[in-house]
Amino acid sequence: MGIILRVLSLVVFLFTSSFLLAQDGLKHLIHVVKPGETLYGIAKTYNVSIEELMQFNEEINKMKEIKEGSTLLVPDRRAALEKEQESPTISTQADTPKSKFIYHEVERQETLYSLSKQYGLSTDALIEANPIIEKEGLKAGFLLRVPRENAEEAQVFIAQNDSLYYLHAVQKQETAYSLGKQYKITIDSLYILNPEIKAGLKLGQLLRIPKNRTRYAPKAIAAKSEAPEKTVVKTTPKVRDTVSADSDYMLYKVKGGDTFFNLKQRYFVDQEELVRVNPELEKGLIVGKYIIIPKKQEAAEINWLDKILNNAESGGEVSNVPLSGETIDKKENLNTPKIADTLRNKKPSDSLLIDTAKEYRVALMLPFRSSRYKDSLDAYSFFPHRDTEMASQFYYGFKMAADSLAKKGMRVNLKIFDTEGDLAITKSYTEELLKAQLDLIVGPAYNKNAEYIADKMKETGVPVISPLSKSVDIHQRPNLIKMVPDEAAKASTIADLLNSKFATANILFAHCSQKDQEKNVEEIMARLEPRENAFVMTMSNCNELASTRSLKEKLYMDGIKVVVLMSDDPVFISDMISKLYGLRDTAIYLIGSPTVLKSPTVEYSYLNALHYTTYEVISTNYENAEVKTFVAKFRKDYKEEPNSYAFQGYDAGLYFLERLWKNGPYFLESLNDQNKLSTGYKFEKSPEGGIRNNYFIHSSIKSYKLKRIN
Predict the structure, then answer these.
(1) How far apart are CA 338 and CA 467, in angstroms?
(2) How far apart are CA 537 and CA 414, in angstroms?
(3) Is 33 exposed, middle or buried (0-12, 13-18, 19+ CB in 10 A)?
(4) Strand (E) or helix (H) holding 362
(5) Any alpha helices (H) in 508-585, and if so which ranges?
(6) 10 Å Cβ neighbour count for 535?
(7) Rounded to an integer, what distance in angstroms lies between the CA atom of residue 21 and that of residue 26?
(8) SS3 letters across 340-354
(9) What is the C-alpha separation between 472 and 693, in angstroms, rounded?
(10) What does the pLDDT look like over 581-638, one tens digit per residue?
(11) Model confidence at 173, in pLDDT bands (50, 70, 90)?
(12) Are 252 and 290 in contact (CB under 8 A)?
């Protein structure tokens, strides 16, 4: 009976939240860890350092989280804390000497990269101070040692620079991508200033935005300084630019013969600074384009010839003004191609612009490679180049679309150019294209050829459509349209899926730490709308991904869990799908590329159980009545089967020719979203110029059949 009483007494003793204990004349407390408590919070409560907690509790693993119900021995310094609060001018030296480290408890979604940015030191320095990271990786609950000197320097830097930033409170439907566009700041810059947003935006979260960007969003609020209130001056901050805050600037029109060297001689500004103010100058000076020049000091005397040229071209210096959003916008407006300038601000309805008398001149530039074939060939000696088949099929489909619009009243003069897939041959058509007074150019197929034609047609304002290349560069080419979605578009479509179909779901990105996959995850995350309670995380450790146990731990939460496969490696795909299926969790939804469907080792029943969803550039439903009609007519007219290029040509012809016919000079402004026979269009104007298609067709497996969901 005595033993039972002693045991009961001990149980009651341990589960009392805290009590006093005398040891060597010092007062201590025993603290029982409550749910949600951390070492940092406990140390703060009792006015002790984390090192002291560890000193009196050797059983605590310095790198592990404390568990609910654990008992800690705590030095009792609460009296010292109360005394310090009553007499704040008295400095207490009773605390232990300042440690070389401060401690940071790792939270969910924090990464070595975000911590290195937060504390202003390299990831290698963090690993060196915490060797266990190399063995076990970074995990929530780990207590990291951060070199105090570096951390304090970083915090001082942030405090000193708060006056340079505004705070933006994240609203519903906002994304890092939309905020980047709103404030005209790169996503990378947003991440550097706000590393925590790599784990996804939260509603109401405050983001640091440079003050010189807030001219694009007047509702931003000033960042609060930690300095005493009396130092805060409530005035509207002056709009400044990061290049040169106190200088004046002027707009200058580049003339023939201008070089960076003579601009430096005249305006005392070197090439590097000009490029910083005008990023487009990385590709060199362009005659007739306006640039912004910082006015360093009195400009050098302009000779008589320069004065004549400036007057003749209505160019040269426009007024000296501080660099602001208005200056930048004015430069952009002056450099915008002149496409129906008198009508640009007024966009009428389609029906008012149809001109039945006008003949629309369209050039189709494709690599038919006709020079490879003789005038007469028998069936046995004809082995067409793959480009020939591609170009022919695209042309047949495009022509069918043109013929159908002609029956409705559109007059199309279609001129064909065989580029042979050769840049030199493409260049040889330049003069003919310029003289033809074209309304639209479709092609060339290869990226370098399409870029060259777009550059040559830029001044005329003729739209150029790149029909088959996803790698064509639309940078600084406002008249170039990329028809095939690229990697950035893939990120956009995955984000669209997650925002629309899985707005409240938990999300796990799975890949094996390849640079391109990490970049793609960043692109998707930048487009995710804020989530309140759901987690968003990445698993990029291949050893963890190979473990069913690790996957189960990551996906333990209630509710829908979406796993996004970021790798196309067939072994990775097969292994991941098998393990996810093995969890037998009906709340798991899988998103992956069309490569998943082509993997011979993936069971269709597994994909059905995982509610598999994918995204495709081309998807043809041969049960559709319109598709059946198209196939029948194609067979009749061309005596062969239509392939994917024929469908692309037909869809492009119907879409772009109809836009041209109905909108005329407003063609570039009329590219609305449409879902066509086998493809679709969702165009986005790039901030750097040019237009890209972001449309993918979303399909999901239901009842063992792949069906469109958009």
Answers:
(1) 24
(2) 52
(3) middle
(4) strand 359-366
(5) 515-526, 542-545, 548-554, 570-582
(6) 18
(7) 8
(8) CHHHCCCCCCHHHCC
(9) 12
(10) 999 999 999 999 988 888 888 888 999 999 999 999 998 888 899 999 999 999 999 9
(11) confident
(12) yes
Q: Dump pLDDT digits (tens) for 434-449.
A: 999 999 999 999 999 9
User: Which bin fits 243, alpha (ψ -120 to 50), beta or left (φ > 0)?
Assistant: alpha
CA separation for the pair 589, 569 (Å, rounded): 20
Please give the Cα distance from 146 to 115 (Å, whole number). 10
CB 689 within 8 A of CB 593: no
What tokens does 200 get?
């996804």
Strand partners, 675: 680
**pLDDT tens digits for 462-491?**
999 999 998 999 988 999 999 999 888 888
- Determine the pLDDT at residue 464: 96
Residue 627, SS3 per DSSP: helix
Amino acid 208: pLDDT: 79
Q: Report helix, strand or coil for 249.
A: strand
Q: For residue range 575-589, what is the model confidence (pLDDT) as tens digits?
A: 899 999 999 999 999
Alpha helices in 359-412 (DSSP H): 386-407
> Count of alpha carbons within 13 Å of 409, Cβ hemisphere only?
7
Of 354, 360, 366, 352, the C-alpha closest to 396 is 366
- Bridge partners, residue 167, by sequence: 208, 221
Reported residue count of the chain is: 710
What is the rounded CA–CA span in Å between residue 18 and residue 41? 15
Q: What is the mean pLDDT of the chain?
A: 76
Least confident of 375-379, 496-500, 644-648: 375-379
Rounded Cα gap, residues 591 and 614, in angstroms:
6
**Residue 409: other Cβ atoms inside 10 A:** 9
Q: Confirm if 120 and 157 have CB atoms less than 8 A apart.
A: yes
Q: Are 616 and 594 in contact (CB under 8 A)?
A: yes
pTM for this model (two decimals) = 0.57
| Among 228, 235, 230, 173, CA closest to 203 | 173
What residues form DSSP beta bridges with 101? 147
pLDDT for the residue 99: 59
Question: Do residues 106 and 78 make contact, with C-beta atoms less than 8 angstroms apart?
Answer: no
Say how far apart CA 83 and CA 365 lie, in whole Å: 84
